[in-house]
Amino acid sequence: MSNTALQAFETPDQRLICAATDIFDGGAFDALLSSAPQRDEIVAHLKASQTSGRDAIAAAFRAEPFASRPTTRAYTYLTDCLVRAALRTAQTLMHPNPTPTSSERLAVLAVGGYGRGEMAPFSDVDLLFLTPYKITPWAESVIETTLYILWDLKLKVGHSSRTVRDCLRLGTEDFTIRTAMLEHRFIFGHADLAAELDTKLRTELFQGTEREFIEAKLAERDSRHVRQGQRYVVEPNVKEGKGGLRDLQSLFWIGKYIHKVQDAAELVPLGLFTDDEFASFVAAEDFLWATRCHMHLISGRPTEQLTFDMQAAVAEDMGYQDKAGRRAVEQFMQDYFLHATEVGDLTRIFLTKLEADHLKAEPILERLFKRKPRVKRGYEVINNRLAIADETAFLDEKLNLLCIFEEALRTGMLIHPDAMRTIKSNLHLIDDDMRNTPEAQRLFLDLLLKHGNPERALRRMNELGVLAAFIPEFEPIVAMMQFNMYHSYTVDEHIIQCIAQLAMIEKGELIEDLPVASSILKEGVNRRVLYVALLLHDIGKGRPEDHSILGAQIVRKVAPRLGLKQDEVDTAEWLVRYHLLMSDMAQKRDIADPRTVRDFAKAVQTVKRLDLLCVLTVCDIRGVGPNVWNNWKAVLIRALYRQTRRALEDGMEALNRDNRGTEAKKALRAELADWPRKDLQTETGRHYDPYWQGLHITAHIVFANLLRDIGENEIAMDLHPDDDRDATRACFVMPDHPGIFARLTGALALVGANVVDARSYTTSDGFVTDAFWIQDADGNPYDAARLPRLRKMIERTLAGEVVTRDAIKDRDKVKKREKAFKVPTHITFDNEGSDIYTIIEVDTRDRPGLLHDLTRTLAASNVYIANAVIATYGEQVVDTFYVKDMFGLKYYSENKQRALEKKLRAAIVEGVERAAG
What we know:
The chain is of the alpha+beta class. It is built from 41 helices and 15 strands.
């Protein structure tokens, strides 16, 4: 890059952008200096010029929202103008020195990103003030005045004052300083001094330390990736995250350090990049810089984290629009993750290429005694990586594009970057003829079923484009982001995570966490069907149609192509069509209601299907994100599986209400054997059938003790950690009266408790027994030490000392980063899902206080709530209520349903407005 800022950035377009500033050499600024102005006049002039320049650059960028390169150059040029103007002011007006001595020479250099000439709207301005010897009082005054002017312009300036010797010494000690100086650029002052630094950095610091620099940059990169997380995190850091700008910059730094290149294009003739790879480098860099510049302009500050609200705003500014069932923000983030993946591929190829020449070799004794893995004919081992021995022979057989992944799994080796290049540039060989050969089908299924770590092969194949080439229907979901707080990964990565979970269960690594799924696989299932169904279960996402229905249609075409027989295709198709059924039934319905289990059993029909669906459901939930699966979900899935299996094997009569009630009463009598017979008869006779079916024996015992000693107008309460369900069980007993369920939900909302399940039962002698399972804000049960305070706060609320609706306003707020999520409200009435109740399902945006708003509205409409089941999916919640009207009847009337729905929607809207402030 040229040592003159004006030459470096003075292209016609950039001069046009910055012409409005009029702050570069000559013109109005010279006239201003010659008039001997006051310092405030100069600062005012520079502020006005800075504002007009920034406005011009921002306007030009918004007109061409992907034009990042001219934009970053223009901001650099504008900053150069401001720095030069501040320096000239300090030197000629504030501290004139017409005859400086040799020790009073001063050069000002840009370093770091500013030195490279890439600046986002609010990037730091990193300056190096260079002097030949120890800094003189004159130089100190000039530097101080310059900095104060720049600070008055609200620039974030990072600065250092050093001699050439200082630079060499500090660069030896600190790789961050060495990297910053690697990209130094002369701005103003004594050019010969800057040239001396340039020469000595090359000859005395950089030369001969290439290996040391590479190792430091790789260690720094690994540490940064650990801090920032994987490439597929849903709120990535554009600058520091995996696949972000810093990764690209690291490649260029290493190339520049070793080969003295001034531009990334110079890496192509050196063989470090092919033309196609360099084009990918440029495309990724342009996209990431455009994203970062938009983030800065939207926030008005140096924002680097692409948060949910920022994602939506950037997508809008970059011109993305909703289409074909996908939101603009999802399309934008898919492009982002595709570029991030490309950056990862380039990094692997580039660094491994350098490794052979520059990184430390293994000690001679290790090389002598280390046993090299034996590879099949056609492959060789280079630097402990699987390489292609003869590229021409390799490409003569199309199947080798799959065979190499099997060989990599068999040997446990990584694939050499040269082999990756060969694969990626020959994906066109994977055509219909190759896809339909039995040997290709066998190879692909072996990658899934044979080696025990299929996710490793799938991830490699996905990143190199082989997976989408072999299964073209997979391509639309590659890097597809789901814009919600529930899914932690892109769709393709979610599928690979699910496959990884299945492989771990098969290897017996999760027996303690997943006893049912582990036992199912131990007993034996059709693995081909299970793996293919899991691989394809979300392949229909991103379209206007229901992804389960569309996915099943795709399975009908793809599964035979993967070698499945017709009966296997039918089962895989059914699994994909109903892959959400078990999860929905367990989390959105009352599985204590025999009708729920009966309907689920009728849908599943066979134990074989139940087994497959259960394992697929567990893998699907665990593959959503690191903290999604918990004991609560495990208990629900396990209970539904066991009850359904019993019904399928022993007949539907096994679900008979009377039988279950009799068993529950018998169990209670055994547990309370020390009670007087009369007290036992009172307890077993006061509850109706649903009570005995809906609660575990442990809750029956708690309620029996609370009811035995309760006073006439007393509220009895029991709070107890339920570790098996990752929740705290809160049991309440009090005289029955309308609206008590809503009061309890309000009290729990006020103490910050999240209700995950709730059941309400009345007794024949006028009491209500309500059981709630609650978690804290982090989704955990309350510690035993916190329970006394929790109890006291609930008691105060129930005693009327706190008005719930007023107090909840302060808590009922949606976080700023979550406001971008729009969840439409759907309310349904189901009179078939329960023999006794109408099931009202409210699917809407989650927020604190929502459950209280809904239950209060139902209570005001004289609706009796028997129980509530709450399923939360990130920002979305499905609250399901089992209800009767005031006469104990279902809500069959459509007019009554519409009236009730209208009131519930009004309560939701009112709560949203309250949450928005």
